[in-house]
Design goal:
50 residues, flat, 2 helices
C-alpha cells in the first residue's frame, strides 16, 4: 500500500469530483482563517487517514 501526500490525494479527489460533474469552490481567506488551515491546503491534519 502506498500513501499519497495529502496535497496529491486532495488533487486526485478534486479530479474525481470533476468527472462526476461536481464543482468545488476555492477556500476564501476568511474561511481559512476561521478554520486555521492554509487556503491552498492540505485541508486534513497529518494524522487523518482517508
Amino acid at each position: 500500500v502506498y500513501v499519497l501526500p495529502k496535497h496529491l490525494d486532495e488533487k486526485v479527489a478534486a479530479l474525481h469530483l470533476g468527472k462526476l460533474g461536481a464543482k468545488l469552490t476555492k477556500l476564501t481567506k476568511d474561511q481559512s482563517d476561521y478554520l486555521s488551515i492554509p487556503v491552498e491546503g492540505p485541508y486534513k491534519p497529518v494524522h487523518y487517514r482517508y
